[in-house]
Amino acid sequence: MTKVGYFYTDCLVPMVGNNPYATAEENSAELSINAEVYSLPSKKLVVLQIRSPFIKNKYRPFCETLLSWVKSSKCARVVLLSSSHAYQRDDEQLLGTPLRYLLTPDLEKAVGGRMQELNWKEMEKVAAYPGINDTDKVLHIPGGGITKLLFTESCSKGIQMAVLLKFCSEGDNIPDAFVLVNYLNEWLQLIKSESNSSTDLSSQWKIPSSWRLLFGNGLPPALF
């Protein structure tokens, strides 16, 4: 995808670094910042990537700005890729797939049937007061950052949004990234599988060059 701009906001911790998607020495020194926009016109796809944490009490202003941009840009729909703490799942969520989805009412009308065909599992609501009152259920996405707020605001503003998320643990999340993007691809068919399996696509995605530096340099031989 081609970088087409950035999302200017004071809601994120300032950050600047080298090009994480460098393919040669010539473009490795290009600067990247905390929120950048990429485009793929052939798929009518625009991606906003957020690379730094939110400043305290800035969640809501960011959501308002983002959804205002979505509306003014006339985006047909929004897909939010997110995660939730694996260790905070309830008993029901421990069973089966670690992948979940959510649809706003406006998008449910358009694609709800497709999700049923894919046998996807909707994110469960949990008891608001566990052990005291188990009948009142609420949406709970621990570790999901702005996911819940962005979703509920989209519901109230009539924006077509889907949330795709995976229960994740701390550590090397590269396998989680592949699982989540393959999950997205099951629905949107961004790339076609070269095999019969729609989930075995890991070798067909381009891996960012920056992932080689995820855990820093190797241990120096002098240690041994």
Explain how this protein is built.
The structure is a single chain. This protein has 224 residues and is α+β, with helices and mostly antiparallel strands. It has helices at residues 25-28, 59-72, 105-117, 147-157, 174-188; strands spanning 2-6, 16-18, 31-33, 35-40, 45-50, 78-85, 99-103, 126-129, 133-138, 161-168. A three-stranded antiparallel β-sheet has the order 1-4-5, with no helix packed on it. It has a three-stranded mixed β-sheet with strand order 6-10-7, with helices on both faces. The protein is globular and about 60 Å long. It comes from Malurus cyaneus samueli. One of its GO terms (biological process) is proteasome assembly. Pfam families: PAC2.
Task: Briefly characterize the structure.
The protein has 224 residues and is an alpha+beta fold. It is 25% helix and 24% strand. It has five helices and ten strands.
Question: Topology as H/E string?
Answer: EEHEEEHEEHEEHEH
Q: Which structural class matches the secondary elements?
A: alpha+beta
| Helix content class | 25-40%
Count of distinct strands? 10
Low-confidence runs of at least 5 consecutive residues: none
Q: What gyration radius follows from the Cα positions, in whole Å?
A: 19 Å
Protein name: Proteasome assembly chaperone 2
GO biological process, one term: proteasome assembly
Family: Belongs to the PSMG2 family.
Keywords: Chaperone
Highlighted features:
alpha+beta; 3-stranded mixed beta sheet; about 220 residues; 3-stranded antiparallel beta sheet; about 25% helix
